[in-house]
Amino acid sequence: MWYYAAMAKEASEKKQQAPKMANKKAFHDYEITEKVEAGLVLLGSEVKSLRGGGGDLNGSFARIIDKECWLVGCNIAPYAQATTVKHEPLRKRKLLLHKLQLRKIEIKLQQRGFTLVPLRIFFNDRGLAKIELGIAKGKRKYDKRDKLEKQQQRVDISRSLKKYS
Predict the structure, then answer these.
(1) Cα–Cα distance between 76 and 62 in angstroms, integer?
(2) What are phi and psi of 68, to 5 degrees?
(3) What whole-number distance in Å separates Cα of residue 45 and Cα of residue 85?
(4) Backbone angles phi, psi at 157, to 5 degrees
(5) CA-CA distance, 68 to 53, in Å (whole number)?
(6) Which pLDDT band holds residue 13 (cuts at 50, 70, 90)?
(7) Sheet holding 93-96, edge to edge
(8) In 3-state terms, what secondary structure has residue 14?
(9) Considering the domain 12-139, what is its CATH architecture?
(10) How many other C-beta atoms lie within 10 A of the C-beta of residue 10?
(11) Which pLDDT tens digit goes with each residue over 24-74?
């Protein structure tokens, strides 16, 4: 009996995978103040393509239009084994959020300088496609340079300490 429990545990561990698509440039270009998780409305061929790793979040953004949240500019590659019904790679995709979450995000976005940036798309433990959105403020050029300089200093210090230990 313990064997089946171990097998079920292994199966659930396999489901929790690394994000299928991540927007690494968002962390460089924006200062993320808050993160929100939302559901994605996708077609079957889009889900298959995402599971295969065919997608790109670079250059995409989220907008609130008519009290609904939409993902714009996200490129999900066409699924090769799809039948005659294929999806459009750059179409707008609806994001699923509660009304209270939408109101909260909308209030934040009305403040100057804030934008809604997709950070990553992943599949939760139930196998549903989710997207992590970040309420972010754009960084200036000197902020980016300063961050890179501090990062380089940390790397140099750790290298020098590694020599002596």
Answers:
(1) 15
(2) -135, 145
(3) 8
(4) -65, -45
(5) 27
(6) low
(7) 21-22, 114-123, 129-138, 30-40, 93-96, 68-72, 61-65
(8) helix
(9) Beta Barrel (2.40)
(10) 9
(11) 888 888 888 999 999 999 888 888 888 888 888 888 889 999 999 999 988
Domain regions of the chain by residue span: 12-139
What phi and psi, each to the nearest 5 degrees, are found at residue 163?
A: -60, -40
Structure tokens at 87: 């999806």
What was the pLDDT predicted at 19? Answer: 54
- pTM here? 0.73
Q: Is the pLDDT of residue 6 over 50?
A: no
Tokens at 23, concatenated: 């927007």
CA quadruple 37, 39, 40, 46: dihedral, nearest 10: 100
| The pair of three-digit structure tokens given for residue 9, joined into one six-digit string | 């545990």
